[in-house]
Every structure is written in C-alpha cells, then in structure tokens.
Design a protein that fits this description.
Number of strands of chain B: 14
Radius of gyration of chain B: 19 Å
Number of helices of chain A: 15
Radius of gyration of chain A: 20 Å
Largest interface: B-D, 46 and 46 residues
Largest sheet of chain B: 7 strands, mixed
Shape of chain A: globular
Strand order of the largest sheet of chain B: 3-2-4-5-7-6-12
Bound molecules: thiamine diphosphate, magnesium ion
Shape of chain B: globular
Oligomer: heterotetramer
Order of helices and strands of chain B: EHEHEHEHHEHEHEEEEHEEHEHEHH
Distance between the termini of chain A: 61 Å
Structural class of chain B: alpha/beta
Largest sheet of chain A: 5 strands, parallel
Number of strands of chain A: 7
Strand order of the largest sheet of chain A: 1-2-3-7-6
Helix content of chain A: 40-55%
Helix content of chain B: 25-40%
Number of helices of chain B: 12
Structural class of chain A: alpha/beta
Strand content of chain B: 15-25%
Chain lengths: ~350, ~325, ~350, ~325
C-alpha cells in the first residue's frame, strides 16, 4: 500500500480525510523529530546520554501511525519510538531521562500520556498491549491499544503468543511492525523466510503491508485498523516497510555488517523529502513553511538539550521508593541500611 | 459452593477453601478477573476454579490458549487498564515459560513506571511434589520467585490458611505468587474461613517447643509436625514454625525461634543449594549468631532433578531425616 | 487431503506405492496400538501405571506418519505418541516405565530407537527437533527430523520460534501437528482463530492439512514432506485433523467440558473401521486377517501387561547416577549422604 | 587474532581472551558450533566472537533470529545429533526467555535419558552491572542457574582465567553457564593463556591474609582486592577468595578460609535474598561452625530491581561497604 512515491509523485488517492493544516503538521512533526533524534546522538557523544537508539528514516512510520490514534487509545512502544512519543504528548526531556540513565522505562507518566513504558526485552510489550486491549474490551470502551515492535521482534515467542491470543479474544489491538530491514546486525532475510504481514492469516485476522516511508499511507492503514478495532472487529497486523538509516544504537558500528551502498539506496526513499515534495507540489505548503519548521525544530532541540543537561541524578531513596506499593518492615530495614551507609 | 462465607463452621479441603477465596474475591471486586489454562469451563485440574465461570460469567473467568508468557503479560496489561488479575499456571514447571515476563515486568513494572501503576497480580501455582506426578509436575520453584526482587511469595500449609493467604494475595497491591502444595489439596480442616489469620509477611508457630525449632512451609509442615511428635520419645520438645510467607520472611519470628531454642532445622523439598533454607540459615546467623548452640540444619531435597514417582519418597524430607537433623542439633 | 472416506469408499488415488503386505501391516499396527492403549488405561485403573494419556482415535495419524520415516530419520514426540513409538521399534514395556513412574521421559534408548524422549512441557520438543535437523544439515545427511505436537502446542512461543528458525535455516524438519480437537478442556476454536496449517506460509515453507483419520493420506503427505526435507528443500508443516476419543488422560473427566454427542459423531470417523472396510473391499485382506490381528493384539497386550507389572522400582542410586557425566566431589558427598541415610 | 595460542606472553583483555578460547576450541573440535544473536557477521556486542565466522565459516559460527528459547532448544537437539554447542545470550536478562528450556531440558536431559546422551552445551552470558547499562542489562542471574540441579556455573574474574574457564566449560560433558562480567571485558592482564589454571569446581586465593576472608566472584573480585588493600591501614590482613565456580562450589576452600580466619564476608552484586552469599554462609555454618568467630557477613546488592545508571554506584557493593563489613567481622 503506497500513496506517495519516493519521488513525491502521487501513487494513489492522497485524500485521506485530512485538511491542509493537518497535512502540514505531519511534515512539521517529522522535521522536528529528525532534528531531535540527531540532537540526542550528539548528546550521547558528549556524554550527556547513555547508549541511544536513533530512528532516522522511520519518522513517517512512527508519526503516521501515532497520529491515527485517539486520546483514549493506548500505546505500548519499544525503545525506538521517541517520534511516536512526541505525537502522544510525552515530554521529550522526561522521555530522555531513560537514556540519561536517571530512570527506567517509564520516567514519564504512562497513564497520563497513554503511552506505555519504553520496553527493551524484545517483544515483551506485545502481551502487555494484548492485556490492555482485553481490559478495554472488558470495559466496553470504544478504544484500542497499539503495540509497536520491530521485524526482529516477530521471531520471539511473545509476539506469537500475544498475536494468537488476540485473535482468539477478538480484542481491539493494532500490531504495528516497523520492518526497518535490520535487527542489530541481522537483515530481515535472516530473521524470517516468510513475510511478516502474512503471519496474520494464521491468527485469523487481517495483515497488511504498507510503505512505511509514506506517511499518508501509514496514517490511512493505521486509521483503518484503529477503526476496525474500535468497531469490535478485532486485531490487525500492520507491517510498515521502512529503513534504519543509522546504526542500531550509538554503541553499534553498522559498518561491520552493512554495506554503505544499501544505506545510500535507502536514503533515496527518505520519508521527509518525499512528503515535502508532495506537500508543496499539492499546494498544501510552501518553502517558508518548511523553513519555519526547521527553525522550530532547532529551537525545540536546544530546549530539550538544556532540559536534559539540567537533569540531576536521582536521590538514592528512589532505588527503594517504588518497588512495592506495600513494602514490608524488612524491606524498610534494608532501605535504612542502604541510606544510612 | 456457598454464596456466603466466613459465617458457619464446616470442613474444608485446601482446594475447596481456595475455591471459596476466589469466589468471595470475585464477588467483592467487580474489577477482578481470573484466567489461565482450563480454569474456566473445566474448573481447573485441581478443581480450584470449579464453578467460578458459571457463577461470574466467561468475561470474568476465562480460559486462555496454552501461552504462559502471554498469560503473565496479559495480567500486566490489564493492570495498566485498571484490572486486578488472578492467573494460574497449571503446574510448577509450567510457570517457567513465563519467567521472563514475571522477572522483567510483573516484578519490576511498578518500579519501572515510578509507582504510577500498581501490579495487583496474583499468580497461582500448584507446586511441590508428593502426588506421584510425572516429571515437571513435582518441582519446587520458590527460589526463582523469592530471589526476584519485587515479588511477594506465600505458601499455605492448611485449608483455612489457604483461604486467608489467597484472599490477602488478591487484595495486595503488589504481585504475589501463591505456591499451592498440591499434595495437600485434599487435606481437610474444620473451621470458619476468614481473614482473621495473619497476613503476608507473618509466619506462625504450629507447635510450641523449646529444644529445637523446625522451620518449614507448605506440604512439609505436616511432615515436620509428625517429626515433632516422634521426637517426644527422644525427650525432645520441638517447636514447629510454618513460614507461610517466603517473601517477605518473618525475620522477627525466625530470630525469636533461634533465641528461644538455640537450635534450628529448616525443611523443604527444593534442592538444597540456594533453597530457602540457605536464606533462613544466613539470616538467623546474621541476626542471632550469639544465641546459636548448633549450626542451622538443612533437611531438603537433593541437588538433582525431581525424581520419578517411585523415588519421590527417597527424595523428599522424611520424618526420619527431620528427626535425625533435629537430634543432631540438640546433641551438637 | 483425503484418500479414503469415513465410510471406507475411495476419495482419491489410493495407490501410494505400498504393496498389499505393507497395506495390511497398517491395519495390523492400528489394531495392536488401540488394544495396547486400552490395556494401559486398565493398568492405570488397577494402579499399575500413574496417570496415562490415551490416544484412541489418533492411530492413523501416528502410525501413518511414523511409517513414512526411514531408519536414519529421528522423531521428537510429545507424551501421547505410544503408537508412533511402537512403529519406531521402541519396546512397549520400556516406554511404559515412564507411566509406571520408574523413570523420566527417556526410559528407552532415544539414540538406538531414533525416537526422542517423551516430552511433557508443551512444545518444548519442537526446538529440539529443530536442533537435531540443524545437526543433520551440518552433517550433510539425507535424513530428516519429525516433531509431533498437538493443536494446543501451536499456541506456545516454542512452536513459533522453532518453526520460524527452521524456515530461515531451511533444515530437514517435518512439523507434524495432530489436531485432535482438544487441548485438555479447550477446543481448538479456543486455541486459535486461524488455521494451523496456514501458519507455515508466514514462515516461508509449505503447510498442508490432511484427514488425520485416513492412514493412507497421512502416510502420503508425510512421505512427501520427508522426501522434500531429505532433498534439502526445507521444512513442511502438516496439520492432521483427528480426534481425541478419550479424556485428556486417566486423571481427566471430559464430561465436564465436552458433549457426548460430539464424541459419538467422531466415532463415525474412526480410522480403523474405515481402513478395514477399504482394505477388505479392495481385496488386500480378508476377515481372517483382521481376526488374526486381534488375536495378536490380545497376546501382545498381555505380554506388555506382564512386563509392566514385573518392573520393580528403581534403586535410589538412580536419582544421582545420570545428573552429570562429570559429577563433582560435593555431588558425590550428597549422594553418599542420601544413600547412607 | 592469533592462530597459535598458549605460546607467547602478551597482554589480554577478557573479551580477547574469551575470543581466543572460542577460536582455539573451534580449531580443536570440528563438531563444535557457536551460535546466537549477532555472534556471526558482527562478532558480538562485546566482540567476543569477533572474526570467528570468517575463520571457521558460517556453518560453524552462525547468527540466529531473536528466539532465545529456540536457541537453547537447538543446542539440546544438536547434542542428540552429536554436536557440541556454545550459545550466547546477548545480556543477562535476555537469557530469561530461555529459562524453561534451560531448566526443563538443558539441565535435566542427560538424567531424563538415563545418561545415553550428554549435553555438552556452554551458555555464555555477559552478566552483572557496572557499565551504565539500560534496565535488563545489569542483572545478576546466577541464583536462577546455580539453584537449577544439573547445571554447572562459572564466573571468570580476569582475562587469563576467562580463557581457562571458557575452555574447560566447552570441554565439559555437562552444560556449563559462563557468566562473563561485562564490566571487566576490557580489563587487561599480561600472561600466557592456557589450561594450567584450575578447572571447574575449584576456587582460588588471590590475596593471602588471616584476619578475615572476603569471598566473591566476577567483577566484584577487583573491588574486594581494593578493599583488602584499604583494610591494611586498619591493620587488617584480609584474604581474598575468588570462587570462580559457583556450581559446584569449592567447599574445601570455603572451609579452609573459615577455619584459618574465623571470619568470612561474602560479596556479590545480586540482590541479597537467596543470592550466592546465602548458600556460602549456610555451607560455612554447616561445615565450620565451631571455627566461626563472627557471623558470615553479606555485602550485596539490595532486594530491588537493578537500578538505572545514575544509581548503580549506590547499589553495587563498594570498597567502603566491604571494608565496613570486614571490620565488623574482625571486631565482632
Ligand atoms: C529478549 C531480548 N533479546 C535480545 C535483546 C537484544 N536486542 C536489543 S534490540 C535487538 C534487535 C531488535 O530488532 P528489531 O525488533 O527489528 O527492532 P529494531 O532494533 O530494528 O528497531 C536485540 C536483539 C533484547 N533487547 N531482548
Ligand atoms: C508448558 C506447559 N503448559 C501446560 C501444560 C499442561 N498440559 C499438559 S497437556 C496440555 C494440553 C496439550 O494440548 P495439545 O497440544 O493439543 O495436545 P493433546 O493433549 O491434545 O494431545 C496442557 C495444557 C504443559 N504440559 N506444559
Ligand atoms: Mg528492525
Ligand atoms: Mg490436542
């Protein structure tokens, strides 16, 4: 499924029901997200963040899908969905506490933002999304849960168990796979001999493959899946084909296993330039708008940088403050021992 | 099943008391769900969930596919949606496929999100041996759970206490693993089920005695009581302590027992190395070293896989082994 | 895929390349297996065996598939494949040591019989079969590995991980699912909303559904999968539709969750009567042959019963004798402690 | 990488020495395979498998999909086919998805088939904290493995010993879990790698001393040596014991240390409850009670999830905490 070609020309019906303002906003968010991603990599190099997993190249997949969600919907992300987090209204500085090393997966409030904690154990967030969708079904809500995961995550038992159970229960779940071509050093071809989107059939619900670098197409297929889920028609598996332009993380050297030529070829499919070309060509925006976005992005990146650097290390008490809602006397004794000396 | 509880005195089996606890908890909390393999229509391999689905409907009590990791993960997701869960793993070893979810998320999630979401999840596991079960049906998994920070672990040894501990586990805002001694499911006890019994973190003395303290939990408690009776002939007055709660441990009770008897023997079915007795022994040494007249004894399973039915008796702590250890402590 | 209809009439080309003797042997094995299965249930009721999982109704699925294997192939079973074990030459009395409670999953020699240990943790034997097939591929053997598992087993992560990895490596693996309609109290419809055989597509290899009560059809599809594997063309997923006539095990009361009517309907699809009708109708055998098989089955069942009852409990040393190939001094001390007291 | 080993003296990092051990084992045994996530083309997150695929080919050293349970299960199946495996789990917590396979089969299979098939499987796991890693990247999983009967567990604390222990683990006919202290991967040591060092089951004394024995393993050993140096100022002569092998434990060395010093402190990063120190303390009490002048001290991580990078230092045993415990033991 594709609506805009890599060169920016129309490849399908681009009227996905969004007005010019909303369409411009998509470009704005992609520009801001990419700028922030690059700032984070700089912050890591300068020792202000621990290992950081960049998402350059995946802006359309993340922002297009997140924009298709409503306020009542809920997201369970992996560790690479900062762009989607921004769409959900997660505060960037709070989010980056995770990479700053000042707290675990949920430094922001997952309930308030309806964006679950950053999740590192591969595919383990998918059963959480299933469970949350079961809860929405029990509560009879017209809302859904979306789980983000990568191509590599589809090899884990947790993906399978959650997808199959979601099919059995017919819960309002959207399984959104960002197939960015790589899982650290393993290309998708080494991850599976099948096609990820086609797994859905075996679970009894629809699977769809979309050009993950085409933000309009991503938005459209995700919105359809979200509506299906809210209607009570059950889960959908979406495979968004995109590409991880950078290394797996700032700790990884992709040069060891990946040819530069492949990356160059991928750059020609860039989600931002493609969408910008189309947006301006279709008369929804002009060059000034783009410049405005870039200025806004710079300012935002600088604000986030300042906020991150300003964040102090947490007090030692935090190590004990949230382990239990009802801690035992013995636990408190250990806490005192730790704080005492 | 009774609709009313805690009222009249009657005879309970552990299975029946646990069933009543689930029934009462479901009746009390409309946001509690019970799910797992074969817990719905069939009522569970040990009948613990018998009748719950017909009483509360298939949305509150439901069967799942055979997917333990997803069962545990579903409970985590339900907690985010404001639901309280009781999940069952059919047998001890069948809780292992969910260990990643339990260790990484069930135990850590509240800390991970800085307390913004509680994890009121009860994990029921028929555990331990003694029923001539097949391999993987007689394991003692407590060490895996007790060592995992963020979990509470309880083990009832009798029907009435089973009711209390399961109700307390369900009501607890934190994840609680309930290890149900399957060898005791049909043991009987007469009384009134209720919440009067002590809560999580508190052990109990089932037999007074000042010569030696025999500390155990679960199915082994009865064997320890039998050993204590047998020790009378040797003129030994043994105290029997039922830990009830393995995490947190009742340090005060352990210290009191050590101080008052000077001699402690810990009994469990799990393999010895890093079994609960190691922790109990280490704590007693830390907290009551000067009162110890003898080293804390360990009467445990051996460091081998749980054996086939024919060798169960040789593997599990026996009255003889417990008595020998108690006498060794007394005569040390 | 079906070659013989429930009423015994031909539904396809029944020439699967077997001569009359081989065709008769299929009936003989099914009659013997069923008789032994019933004897085992009697032995359990009499306290001579611990819990026993019967396989009545699944004789064609097990025997048809096992007969398609060669001496160099290897099988990893679940806990319900006694009929297949007999085909592989496993000694019934040795096999039943497992249910006698005198030893664990491998009381017989898995290497000599090329039949892996009885496996209870659902789906965990499938990765073992994958690994064995990887070994066959490394050794360049013209042989394959077959994994048996049930419908319920397909919900476990282990099934998925092993199937997907097998597709990636293209190893000689046959994934043989006996869909007997139930997983203890859960009907297959509660296990998955999809079709099991169709999962294969998502892993990049063929999946096929066969009438599991039609021994000729089972034999044919398994033989094709085995040949594919040996040729180096990779894995195949076979879903054999059959039915668990009895309870899950002697400890289970199917009456709690299953309607008798369903069982009655299933009996009309019985694999033995159907095949007997066809075999005699096609002139491969006569009534005397059938009677001969039944007599042989009785004798065999009585021999096995005697052998089982004669088996003593193992010595306590066995508890320590095989844990390690190179046990430590401390382990030996514990052994002496246990045997001494 | 050198084609020849054990010959010339040179400087080794732990990562390099482990890499050499794998290289030499692959060269020696044509039926040994190495597989896991990112171990092939990329050479591993910590470079431990660097260059092995180009040296031995993609059939002997290969990448797998992200399927830890299947990776462990594959090693079991390969053992049935007569192959020896070294598998890697990328980080401590990422070994948890395979726990069912490891507990039910890797550890039990040889017993299950009555010794007819050995399980020569080496499970490599970069473990423990201290690298400012993200959550799930700093766990100390030893208790899960040490308590599981049927497994052997070793932890190198230095490059040269890393070579020895990994070679011994690979050569062992039984499954061996090798916990590699990731905080020490780049620590340097000069010498000749070889198999002269002691084998599995044997610990070593890294510093002589008779006032108190500080017992540890892995990355903490260096911290213990630093503490021992600091203790000199307090006039305390501390012995430092590197366990090396957590299963089996070197009971004789533990007893000797307890008898000769009368005072023992055990140090590890894992949470305290049912951490290795509990077992060491319980054994020493069993085997050397009368020689103890003070309770065995435990300096460990706390019973909380491994904290974020900023709190690592407050969680892990420090020189100060170790010294305080050693002094408490000496002055008891
Ligand atoms: C259970 C588990 N195993 C291994 C890892 C190590 N790991 C971190 S990211 C990653 C690759 C994930 O690939 P993919 O799902 O495609 O996501 P991407 O990194 O491409 O966004 C791996 C193997 C992990 N985090 N969790
Ligand atoms: C990991 C695990 N979970 C649960 C069980 C309990 N159990 C034993 S058999 C069974 C049902 C298996 O169903 P299926 O795979 O269809 O095989 P069948 O019994 O129908 O032959 C279950 C849930 C188990 N043995 N292992
Ligand atoms: Mg990827
Ligand atoms: Mg079945």
């Amino acid at each position: 499924m594709r609506l805009i070609s890599p060169d920016g020309s129309e490849a399908g019906d681009t009227d996905v029901g969004l007005n010019s303002e909303a369409l411009r906003d998509m470009l704005r968010r992609m520009i801001i997200a990419r700028r922030l991603d690059r700032e984070c990599i700089a912050l890591q190099r300068q020792g202000e963040l621990t290992v950081y997993p960049g998402f350059e190249g995946q802006e359309a997949a993340q922002i297009g899908s997140a924009l298709a969600l409503g306020a009542d919907d809920f997201v369970f992300p992996t560790f690479r969905e900062l762009a989607a987090a921004l769409v959900r209204g997660v505060d960037a500085v709070q989010y980056l506490q995770y990479h700053r090393g000042t707290w675990h997966g949920g430094p922001y409030d997952p309930r308030a933002t309806r964006f679950g904690p950053i999740c590192i154990p591969i595919a383990t967030q998918i059963p959480h999304a299933l469970g949350h969708a079961v809860g929405q079904q029990l509560d009879g809500l017209e809302a859904c849960t979306l789980a983000y995961f990568g191509d590599g995550s589809t090899s884990e038992g947790d993906f399978h168990e959650a997808a199959n159970m979601a099919g059995v229960f017919g819960v309002p779940l959207v399984l959104f796979c960002q197939n960015n071509g790589w899982a650290i050093s393993l290309p998708t071809g080494g991850q599976t001999a099948g096609e990820i989107w086609s797994r859905a059939q075996g679970y009894g619900f629809p699977g769809v493959r979309v050009d993950g670098n085409d933000i309009l197409a991503v938005y459209a297929v995700t919105r359809d899946a979200v509506e299906r889920a809210r209607r009570g028609d059950g889960p959908t598996l979406i495979e968004a084909l995109t590409y991880r332009i950078g290394a797996h993380s700032t700790a990884d050297d992709a040069g060891r296993y990946r040819a530069d030529a492949e990356v160059e070829a991928a750059r020609s499919l860039d989600p931002i330039s493609r969408y910008r070309t189309w947006l301006i060509g279709a008369g929804h925006a002009d060059q000034d708008f783009v410049v405005g976005c870039e200025v806004e992005a710079d300012t935002f990146a600088m604000e986030v940088r300042a906020g991150v650097i300003a964040t102090p290390a947490p007090p030692v008490e935090w190590m004990f403050d949230w382990t239990f809602a009802a801690p035992s006397e013995g636990f408190q004794r250990m806490r005192r021992e730790a704080l005492g000396g | 099943m009774d609709e009313v509880t805690g009222t009249e005195e009657r005879e309970w089996t552990l299975s029946g008391a646990l069933n009543q606890a689930l029934h009462d908890a479901l009746a009390e909390d409309p946001r509690l769900v019970v799910f797992g393999e074969d817990v719905g229509r069939s009522g569970g391999v040990f009948r613990v969930t018998d009748g719950l689905q017909s009483a509360f409907g298939a949305t509150r009590v439901f069967d799942t596919p055979i997917s333990e990791a997803a069962i545990a993960g579903t409970a985590v997701g339900l907690a985010f949606a404001g639901w309280r869960s009781v999940i069952e793993f059919q047998f001890d070893a069948f809780s292992y496929p969910a260990l990643e979810q339990v260790i990484d998320h069930v135990a850590k999630m509240r800390e991970r999100v800085r307390g913004r979401v509680d994890m009121p999840i009860t994990i029921r596991i028929p555990a331990f041996g003694g029923i001539r079960g097949k391999e993987h049906h007689g394991e003692s998994p407590e060490t895996y759970y007790v060592h995992t920070a963020g979990l509470k672990v309880v083990v009832p040894s009798s029907p009435l206490d089973g009711y209390t501990l399961l109700r307390r586990a369900i009501a607890d805002p934190d994840p609680v693993v309930v290890l149900e001694p399957k060898a005791r499911y049909w043991a009987k006890e007469t009384g009134i089920v209720g919440l009067d019994e002590a809560g999580i973190g508190v052990g109990r003395v089932l037999r007074a005695g000042d010569d030696v303290a025999i500390v155990s939990y679960g199915a082994m408690v009865q064997t320890c009581l039998d050993a204590a009776s047998a020790l009378v002939e040797d003129g030994v007055d043994a105290r029997v302590v039922d830990l009830r709660s393995l995490a947190p441990l009742d340090d005060d009770l352990l210290v009191r027992s050590a101080v008052e008897t000077g001699r402690v023997v810990v009994v469990h079915e799990a393999p010895r190395t890093l079994g609960m007795a190691a922790e109990v022994a280490a704590r007693i040494m830390e907290l009551a070293f000067d009162h110890l007249e003898a080293p804390v004894g360990r009467v445990t399973g051996y460091d081998v896989p749980y054996p086939p039915a024919s060798l169960e008796a040789a593997y599990r702590p026996s009255v003889d082994r417990i008595c020998a250890a108690a006498l060794a402590a007394v005569r040390y």
